């Protein structure tokens, strides 16, 4: 297990990058604590896999350093970094049995036969393949082979870090939930430093202690699921986390008042003069549809998703979402919305503004 430090780290796939736009991974300076589980979350092309491959040693960064427990490993090979990596698609030895696939990393390091037997049995149980341990991998389904890959990545207890690159892509939905739960359980039991790349917010939020949200090659926020939900530091975080995501609405801010197309609403904090692209962000859970005073909206449709209703509405040409209780009655005269002032965030050029307490 290791603390992972990223110092002035950046990467470009161009031989002579001329500016920031040429970098697939913008400059990073972060410490990731020993023994924590992190998820790298973001849409395709945001730099998640690039960063993971730099940490693992499969890719050499254009600039900066990677340190494991304050030891510079930037030039070290993948083997010398003592990490285990599981890829998006299964990598197994078809001619070997499931048991031998799982035992392979331990045999390579000279572990005792008894330890190998016990550990393989434990991992086989964890991935639900005890009954298949003596079967050859050839002929198994893609999701079974990926479970072998996961198991082989987790079989060693002495690694500095476990790295997962969208490992559940080929796993069926029910097994995804079970494997995520088992990975979390393994982390609690053994305390490995884990980094898990995914574009699926459910995977990230249920697996990780801290979620590292990436956008356009940049880390825009690192936080707990609660922090990402309550205080998105960037509008992308608000949009990407939550279902539906945060409403982002153009506004003008004067002190403790936001003006949306001339309609005013109170804020919980005060702000100095703001310049740039100014917007407010509010989660659909903190928007209430009403027939009383509020901002005027036009309802487009109502979606009943069982536990609650999602109201799709138009606010001065901006589409917004409202989450209403399952038993809430939506009537035609509900043509206004109100926002909870304590839950309205202010953004300039997509970044959260702190403001001053009232």
UniProtKB/TrEMBL annotation:
Keywords associated with the record: ATP-binding, Cell membrane, Hydrolase, Membrane, Nucleotide-binding, Transport
A Pfam match: ABC_tran
GO molecular function, one term: ABC-type ferric iron transporter activity
SUPFAM superfamilies attached to this UniProt entry: MOP-like, P-loop containing nucleoside triphosphate hydrolases
Residues passing through the membrane, by range: none
Domain ABC transporter stretches: 4-241
GO CC terms: ATP-binding cassette (ABC) transporter complex, substrate-binding subunit-containing
UniProt xrefs under InterPro entries: AAA+_ATPase (IPR003593), ABC_transporter-like_ATP-bd (IPR003439), ABC_transpr_FbpC (IPR015853), ABC_transpr_MalK/UgpC-like (IPR047641), Mo/tungstate-bd_C_term_dom (IPR008995), NA-bd_OB-fold (IPR012340), OB_MalK-like (IPR040582), P-loop_NTPase (IPR027417)
EC numbers on record: 3.6.3.20
Domain of life: Bacteria
Family: Belongs to the ABC transporter superfamily.
Name of the protein in its database record: sn-glycerol-3-phosphate import ATP-binding protein UgpC
